[in-house]
Amino acid sequence: MRVLHVHSGNMYGGVETLLVTLARHRDLCPEMEPHYALCFEGRLSEELTAAGVPVHLLGKVRVRRPLTVLRARRKLADLLRREQFNLVVCHSTWSQSLFGPVVHSLDLPLVFWLHGATNGKHWLDRWGRRTVPDLALCNSQFTAAMLLNIYPDVRTEVVLYEPKWSTVR
């Protein structure tokens, strides 16, 4: 299964640590082939490249500059047409808002991964609400409850970030 993870790439924190961890430990799920589409180069793109996974750059995007959004959307559409991905995962309301419509237009399954709490009132939440994903992933039950503020009718799965050794007793 070829999975494209879409994210901004201009910051480095918990979401980015998860993406790098997925890349570094992809041998734990060999049937899944992760690819990454980022808008910005930096620490995240460097660490993903060092981990040996494909990193596709969409170009720097500023929402206040609509042409940058259109160019990045066009690059994503070209990538999705050129490569054969089974699904696309957007890791923030920013990437969901900007790139979710492209994924839907090409009739690919779209997954939204919510990594933190939201009240659904931020302008990105409202914009992202316009493109409903096929599935939502959340990092906790608490976050899953917050997802209802954006997507009340979307099937949701909770994926806990647990160290490998915590399951060994």
Structure, described:
The chain is of the alpha/beta class and 169 residues long. It has a single domain, classed as Glycogen Phosphorylase B (Rossmann fold, 3-Layer(aba) Sandwich). Helix content is 37%, strand content 18%. It contains 6 helices and 7 strands. It has helices spanning 14-24, 43-50, 66-82, 93-105, 123-128, 141-147, and strands at 2-7, 33-38, 55-57, 87-90, 110-114, 135-138, 156-158. Strands 3-2-1-4-5-6-7 form a 7-stranded parallel beta sheet, sandwiched between helices. Helix 3 packs across helix 4 (93-105). The chain is globular, with a radius of gyration of 15 Å. Mean pLDDT is 93; it is low at 165-169.
Summarize the structure.
With 169 residues, the protein is of the alpha/beta class. It contains 6 helices and 7 strands, in the order E-H-E-H-E-H-E-H-E-H-E-H-E. It has one domain: 3-Layer(aba) Sandwich (Rossmann fold).
So what's the overall shape? globular
| Succession of helices and strands | EHEHEHEHEHEHE
State the helicity in percent bands.
25-40%
Number of helices: 6
Structural class assignment: alpha/beta
**Rg calc:** 15 Å
How many separate domains make up the residues? Answer: 1
Q: Major beta sheet, specifics?
A: 7 strands, parallel
SSE diagram, text form:
Layout: E1 2-7, H1 14-24, E2 33-38, H2 43-50, E3 55-57, H3 66-82, E4 87-90, H4 93-105, E5 110-114, H5 123-128, E6 135-138, H6 141-147, E7 156-158
Parallel strand pairs: 1-2, 1-4, 2-3, 4-5, 5-6, 6-7
Helix pairs in contact: 3-4
